[in-house]
Amino acid sequence: MTRSIKKGPYMDPKLLKKISKINPHDNVVIKTWSRDSQISPEMVGHTFGVHNGRDFVPVKIVEEMVGHRLGEFSLTRKFTKHGGKMQKEIETKQKEAEVKK
């Protein structure tokens, strides 16, 4: 996902237009399919609905995210637990211990 320095960071022009129209303090979710757009300082404070192939995942932009891509914060695959039967037994023991406390 690296990009040449001479080309500069990629930003979807439609996304920039949407950002300029909306105040960052409004609780408006900006829907986008542009997962490859790089997060810029103008985006800080906005909430984006980033499409993950199935639905829009709300992503609140903070300063630490600048320089990353929008798609990094909207996962496309769902992680399921490892372990199977043994893991279920461990979890039930943990729940019983919490109930006793």
Description of the structure:
The chain is 25% helix and 14% strand. The protein has 101 residues and is of the alpha+beta class. The chain has one domain: Ribosomal protein S19/S15 (30s Ribosomal Protein S19, Chain A, 2-Layer Sandwich), CATH 3.30.860. Strand 2 (47-51) and strand 3 form a beta hairpin. The model has no long low-confidence stretch (mean pLDDT 88).
Assembly state here?
single chain
| Intertermini distance | 48 Å
* CATH architectural designation: 2-Layer Sandwich
**Helix-and-strand structural type:** alpha+beta
Radius of gyration: 19 Å
> Class in CATH?
Alpha Beta
Which outline best applies? elongated
Order of helices and strands: HEEEH
Helix content: 10-25%
CATH H-level homologous superfamily name: Ribosomal protein S19/S15
Strand order of the largest sheet: 1-2-3
**Alpha plus pi helix count:** 2
Largest sheet: 3 strands, mixed
The tally of strands reads 3
Low-pLDDT segments: none
Q: Strand fraction band?
A: 5-15%
**Overall residue-averaged pLDDT value:** 88
Say what the CATH topology is.
30s Ribosomal Protein S19, Chain A
Q: How many distinct domains?
A: 1
Secondary structure layout plus pairing:
Blueprint: H1 13-21, E1 29-32, E2 47-51, E3 56-60, H2 85-100
Parallel strand pairs: 1-2
Antiparallel strand pairs: 2-3
